[in-house]
Amino acid sequence: MMEEEARTGNIDLSRLLTDMVKAIVEHPDQVNVAEERNGDSVTLTLTVDPADTGMIIGRHGNIANSLRTVMRAASKITGDRVNVEIR
């Protein structure tokens, strides 16, 4: 299904981030992504269980940076600029 969305440019960035993070954390039911749009700019605020915060940030921020890189690549398909905040 993601492939078809990518071809048509209708990617749900919030769902994509949610799905990626749920695959990483110990408490997937506590994953929440809030989306705020301002023109062509999208801010995704990621909230996870406090016990999972370190897992999402990763050693030296590597996982957080990787998540942001994937989201920037996906946003090129939609034409939006995306910013991922982790709380």
Kindly report the average pLDDT value: 90
The CA-CA distance between the termini, in Å, is 29 Å
Count of spatially separate domains: 1
Number of strands: 3
Helix-strand blueprint:
Layout lengths: L1 H7 L4 H10 L9 E7 L2 E7 L5 H5 L4 H17 L2 E6 L1
Parallel strand pairs: 2-3
Antiparallel strand pairs: 1-2
Characteristic key phrases:
single chain, 87 residues, alpha+beta, GMP Synthetase, Chain A, domain 3, 3-stranded mixed β-sheet, 4 helices, 23% strand, globular
Report on the structure:
The protein is an alpha+beta fold and 87 residues long. It has a single domain, classed as K homology (KH) domain (GMP Synthetase, Chain A, domain 3), CATH 3.30.300. The chain is 45% helix and 23% strand. The chain has four helices and three strands. It has a three-stranded mixed sheet with strand order 1-2-3. A hairpin with a 2-residue loop joins strand 1 and strand 2. Helix 2 runs antiparallel to helix 4. The chain is globular and about 35 Å long. The protein starts with a helix and ends with a strand.
